[in-house]
Amino acid sequence: MKSFWNKATCILVMAAIVLGTTACGGGTGSSAPASSAAAPAASSNASSAPAASAPAEDGKSYKFTFYRNGAWPTYPADGGSGYQVMKDAMKAYGLPDIDWEVVAIGGTEYYDKINVLAASNSLPDAMNVNMVTLTSFADQGLIIPLEDKLDQLPAVKDLMRPSELEAVTYKDHLYAFPVGYLEGSINGPNTDGLIIRQDWLDKVGMEVPGTIDEMYAVMKAFKEQDPDGNGQNDTYGYLGTKTTLFQDIFGAYGIQPSFWMETPDGLRLGSTLPATKDALQVLQTWYAEGLIDPDIFTTDKALKDQNFANSKGGIYEGYGFTGSPVQPETAALLSVTPTAKLSPVGKLVGPNGDYGRQESAPGYGNIRSISANCKDVDVLMQMLNWSVDQAENGGFYLCSVGEEGIDFTLEDGGKKINQVSTYDDIYAKGLGNPVRFLQVVDRRWLVDEAVACFEAFSDNYRENKCWKTTPSMLDYPDTCENLFKEYLAKIVLGNLPVDAWDNYVKDFYAMGGDKIEQEVNEIVKAG
Amino acid sequence: MTAKLSFGEKVFEVLNRALLTAISIAMIYPFWHELCLSLSSGTQATRGGIFLLPREFTLSAYRQVMKNAFIWTSYANSIFCAAMTTLLGLLFTSMLAYGLSKKQVAGNRGLSFMVVFCMIFNGGLIPTYLVVYNLNLIDNLWALILMAMVTPYNTIIMKNFFSGMPAELEEAAFIDGAGPLRIFFTIILPLSKAVLATIGLWLAVASWNNFMGPLIYMNSRSNFTLPLYIRQVIDGQLLARTTGEGAQTAVESLVGATIIISVLPILCVYPFLQKYFVKGVMIGSVKG
């Protein structure tokens, strides 16, 4: 019996070693480390890294890894047929032999991943960052200053806006490249705006509203005059989502709640300025009169699109792209109501002549940093410059809309891009957005209806005087992000009186708003 | 012979069935909704609302999903991970649990304490990542398999099951000349089908649904598992829509088709293991 238990003990110890080395697995998930006994197997060599091609004249090959915050499901693991096309173009451009790997992760989980990589000092050569990550990585020395590298990007340097370069400058150093913008109103960073049902306007005999009073009159007509002609009182004026900030309405009163605005006392958050109360009064009245979708504060994007497609509302918080008849929400609307027509709502002027929606965050949400782990920064700069160069053998089109003559043609003297291949097909070849190592916004592919929307929206944006993240913003994340949204919903719904805004201001300053405001003003004064 | 039901029992029976039917519908409808979306045209899917049947029936979403080779790669990776995690997980968990169930084994208490300690105090994401990184297992499917194989919770459930088995069985076998390995593999494991099926199902489902593991540890697309691929499809559609590139793509239909294709295997396996599932948990939970 003794030998029996000796052997049993051996079994136990063997199994315990497995448990010990895989230690600390708290549940059925995957949070424990792995056994060293198991060597990399099956897929260890199944990496997407393409085989290195022949080295350049200096005999050296380079490889860079890019982490992208985006999702392109058809982008091939081996880079696709476009990989060699790009390599050939790079060679003809005069670049050394360069290989690359793109890791694309969509959604906010992307930041979980790069934070883990940062903690293990294994950040990729180049990556998308947001402002919070940028400041954190810069403080830790994980990303490198880039102000001296800008001159190595002649193809894009002049297309980057000074305000955006300034916004990604932290502690006097440029820590990321923003995007560049081609000239023209369609290529700006701002894409959002209000879209109105022109066929409804025609039916009630009104014009696209240009003032806040006209907006009220139009919404009232949409609510009361049965513009969809179904004989039921089931339409609203305004369709939005639970994240809506009623930007045009606040803009008409001279503020944007989440923007830092100039006042005689320095910069203050828009939501703490008295004009906010005036806009809230208007919104509460509109909601009480049934002009705003009653479920707006529980509606997500998909439901808003459904309401739009089913003609539940006449004014839609959309994009310039919404003007295109093939944009999904518009296509759905047209399938139900083929006679539907859309128009953009431009400036919505308030009682004091103010207007303006929120401008987009710097870099079109697509800023890129270079890791301190990158060994060949100068070669990487050459590659980045190639990717945005429109000159012969430059990668501008390969990295955005594919191969000329195959995936697209240039028309009207280069003013229009006529796409032959779908974006999915371009990505499947390994070209286009997944390999857009730097971005230059180029929307020459837009259809005329969408162009009209972009042009109407183009000068209807208000500037944020400070895009930077301060330490107190990180310490009190809810103060700037969520506090006002809570009060906004409660006041618009009528659960709180408009005077509750005074309490909001008190809460704001009590919850770290005073520190945030002080830091913002110090940053701006310091330049 | 069925006893005659009283009025109260009949009322209870009706209400009970009505309630369970309502709950069943509430459970089944989301799946039915996705199925209908996946078989509807893009414009009809975008219109939304309640779907009792597909509108403007089309298989285009399935064609679009299946023409992408990645779904099959992801499928293969998910099946490989789920199968290996289940097989190796059952082997190692049962070996550990069997040893722990024997009080005579030297160091039993200490090892049991370690198991429980690991269940309460987790290593955390970053230390875990560092271990995997230093083992050169990043971007390797074995990282997912090895990490999910043995978990303290499963070990305790199985240990409780083994503890409830009569010691006489093993003593009789030992007298007949069987060694511990033979006893374990030819007597103990065949008598433990219920708990093996239960733990196996847990391991398989956890591996199949694992999203954060592949997200953190896998880099190359050839190593993506199904949850990661599905998330790519959904994020890709949302991104395409906000950048105006999603034109002509049936967003909701495509997402629906991807979801249906991904849940089918687990949906097929689950009913056959359900009876073991309940039995195994009951046994593991009442004996110790």
Q: What does this protein structure show overall?
A:
- The complex is a heterodimer of chains A (527) and B (288).
- By secondary structure, chain A is an alpha/beta fold.
- Chain A folds into two domains: 199 residues, Periplasmic binding protein-like II (D-Maltodextrin-Binding Protein, domain 2); 240 residues, Periplasmic binding protein-like II (D-Maltodextrin-Binding Protein, domain 2, 3-Layer(aba) Sandwich), CATH 3.40.190.
- Chain A contains 19 helices and 18 strands.
- In chain A, the strands form seven sheets. Chain A has a four-stranded mixed β-sheet. A four-stranded mixed β-sheet of chain A has the order 8-11-7-12. A two-stranded antiparallel sheet of chain A has the order 4-5.
- In chain A, a hairpin with a 2-residue loop joins strand 9 and strand 10.
- In chain A, helix 10 crosses helix 18 and helix 11 runs parallel beside helix 12.
- About 8% of the residues of chain A have low confidence.
- Chain B has 288 residues and is mainly α.
- Chain B has one domain: MetI-like fold (Orthogonal Bundle), CATH 1.10.3720.
- Helices cover 75% and strands 0% of the residues of chain B.
- The two termini of chain B are 39 Å apart.
- The model of chain B has no long low-confidence stretch (mean pLDDT 85).
- The chains are: A alpha/beta (527), B mainly alpha (288).
- Chains A and B meet through helix 1, strand 2, helix 3, helix 11 and helix 12 of A and helix 2, helix 4, helix 5, helix 6 and helix 7 of B.
